[in-house]
Amino acid sequence: MDAHSRGRADEIDPADQWVLNPQTGNYELRLDRSAEQPAAPSRPHGSSAPTTASGRGTATDAPVKDTATEAPVPGQRRRRVPEQTRGGRQTATSRRRPKQGASRKKKALLWTGGTMALVLVGGATGAYLLYNKLDGNIHVVDPVGVESKGFRKGEAFNVLIIGTDKRTGAGNGGYGDANSPGHADTTILFHVSKDRTNATALSIPRDLMTTIPECQSRQPDGKILTIPGQQKARFNVSLGQDGRDPGCTMRTVKELTGLDVDHFMMVDFNAVKELTTAVGGVKVCVEKPVDDPKSHLKLPAGESLIEGEQALAFVRTRSSFGNKSDLDRIKVQQQFLGSMIRQMKSDETLTSPTKLLDLAEAATKALTVDKGIGSLSKLQDLAKELSGIDTKNIAFATLPVIDNPDEPKPVTVVPHPTQAPQLFAALQSDTSLTEVKKKEQDAKNAQSQAQAALLKGERSTAADVRVDVYNGSGIQGAAQSTLSWLQNEEGVLRSTNKSNAPEKAAKTTLTYAPNQADQARKLADLMGLPATALKPGTQDAGVREPMTLVLGADFKGAGVPVTGPAKAPDVEKVAADQQVCAK
Fold first, then answer.
1. Which of 76, 95, 380, 565 could pair covalently with 72 via S-S, beta carbons 3.0-4.6 A apart?
2. Region of residue 473 (left: phi > 0; alpha: psi -120 to 50; beta: else)
3. Are 490 and 537 in contact (CB under 8 A)?
4. Does this model's pTM top 0.70?
5. Angle CA(209)–CA(213)–CA(217) in degrees, nearest 5?
6. What single-letter DSSP state applies at residue 352?
7. Residues 218, 249: Cα–Cα separation, whole Å
8. Considering only CA atoms, which of 194, 243, 241, 240 is closest in space to residue 219?
9. E strand or H helix at 440, and its extent?
């Protein structure tokens, strides 16, 4: 059976074949009898199906009586009998084309079966979110002080994805730290735009030195423990260390980025193994052969299909790619997650009820979440919020960092002094890193403005701008950091640091003469100044006379636009729809 026909009866979407039985209260699969799709008989306890070379079970060819009147309830998995076998894959003679378009259920299914794969936890629950039996799989933690709220229309939201290094689950004794209580080994802040058209998955390095604020943590016995904050601590100890729970990691991310973290999802090593197996493997690509004795990863050059232990080895290896650092491991993980998204959104996954149910069970068993999304119905709400996002508008990015200057031989990193604040400002202002339509429109607007400027004779460049910078923000070093950014990154060489302003200023202002209007527009463009910040004078300035820039309390950092960025910052990123080979 080809991918487009798998799981369909008379061109009916399998997501729409599950209906409520009012007598039992369960959702049951009801296929059209006319489709004549017999189900495989139930296997006796202890029996096993024949296996292929890959070790996966296959259905027998023995026909069975159609039992359309006995619709199976969730948990009763019945495989349809293959009519032919081609290269180990089940096929059928029927090749009906699916209907065009998608129902709301299908859209939710597309999302949960695809995009949330980037967090290694949320894929493929779609139409099965209503299964009461899956609800009990989810482990719920109620962080102290975290508001359990839903998803408000017209508001952006942020979900923190935490992958821990805790040695739980069969076969995981050799991974991670033997004594780890479960530190934040892999962390992704998933920002969803207010119009639900795009999302950014921001990876936070585990070896980032940052401030961990004081937090209250609910202990397993129910007691609430107050844990002191730490200055210059590794980010990964924001979880697990000294009894910190995910709520402490949420507060640490807010302290770092300035963004409210609405929800969290946490998983361990088993999530990668179980989900990749349930989806039938994930395609990855490497530029050269890999034989890593530490992670036991062995792959030929080019594409490979990996799952289970091999998939976990792929996302955990450090020795095989780049400069063998955690930062290069993050890139590999992002490439893997993008591929997993594409696999989960493929027809062979979305049109297979059995595969989707396997994914649903694997995902819910792997999840630990906050109370706000701690049930299948609430996860369904999340799926609906995300269902319209195209993979091309999901950007993977890593927090820009530099080597820790406090270490003679740096092994940790700190946020990049200009790029990190710019990226945080982009997320705070809900600026997309990939939104295609917005970028196209921005380009057209910029071209129109440039043409209009040429017609008016406005030819100022950054090199033409003359400006004196005063610090009225109350932030130590603000004028000097702005001067360095203007000169070194924007080419405004005729700029001068005039130290502190006579008094503190509530707002940033740029004062200029009438004959400096073109310079003022150029500088306002570079700095993201609003029109209200521009203060024109009445008399023309001398040829070498500079404008006056006073940084106010609204100053957020050198290179960070006061009004929020009008375009995405220039950081390394990759869209989820792109195939990238690990180097």
1. 76
2. alpha
3. no
4. no
5. 120
6. -
7. 13
8. 243
9. helix 436-455
Question: Rounded to whole angstroms, how far apart are CA atoms 526 and 559?
Answer: 8
Taking the C-alpha atoms of residue 382 and residue 434, their distance in angstroms, rounded to an integer, is 21
Q: Which residues contact 456 (CB under 8 A, 6 or more apart)?
A: none
What does residue 402 show for φ and ψ, rounded to 5 degrees?
Answer: -130, 165
Q: Closest Cα partner for 163 from 252, 245, 269?
A: 269
Contact 127, 19 (CB under 8 A): no
Q: Which of 92, 73, 70 is nearest to 8 (CA)?
A: 92
Residue 444 bridge partners (DSSP) = none
Radius of gyration of the chain (CA): 28
Reduce the DSSP state of residue 106 to 3 states and report it. helix
* Pairwise CA distance, residues 534 & 540, whole Å: 16
Token duo for residue 571: 């950081």
Whose structure tokens read 């992958």? Answer: 163
Q: For residue 322, which of 423, 433, 398 has the smallest C-alpha distance?
A: 398
pLDDT digit string, tens, across residues 223-256: 899 999 999 999 999 999 999 999 999 999 999 9
Per the CB < 8 A criterion, the answer to whether 526 and 536 are in contact is no
Q: What are phi and psi of 8, to 5 degrees?
A: -105, 145
User: What does the block give as tokens for 299?
Assistant: 């792959």
What phi-psi label fits residue 254: left (phi over 0), alpha (psi between -120 and 50 degrees) or beta? alpha
Q: In whole angstroms, give the CA distance from residue 166 to residue 269.
A: 8
Q: What is the mean pLDDT of residues 164-183?
A: 59
| Whole-number Å distance between alpha carbons of 329 and 398 | 11
Greater pLDDT, 316 or 468: 468
**pLDDT (0 to 100) of residue 49:** 38
Contact 127, 351 (CB under 8 A): no
Q: Say which DSSP state 166 is in.
A: -
Q: What average pLDDT does the chain have? A: 75
CB contact set of 340 (below 8 Å; sequence gap of 6+): 117, 118, 120, 123, 275, 276, 279, 282
What is the chain's length? 583
Instruction: Tell me the C-alpha distance between 24 and 72, whole Å.
Output: 12
271-327 residue pLDDT tens: 888 888 888 899 999 999 999 988 889 999 999 999 999 999 998 888 888 878 888
Packed helices 376-386 and 104-112: angle between N→C axes, nearest 10 degrees: 100
Cβ-proximal residues to 181 (8 Å cutoff; 6+ apart), any chain: 166, 240, 241
**Is residue 120 a contact partner of residue 334, using CB atoms and an 8 Å limit?**
no
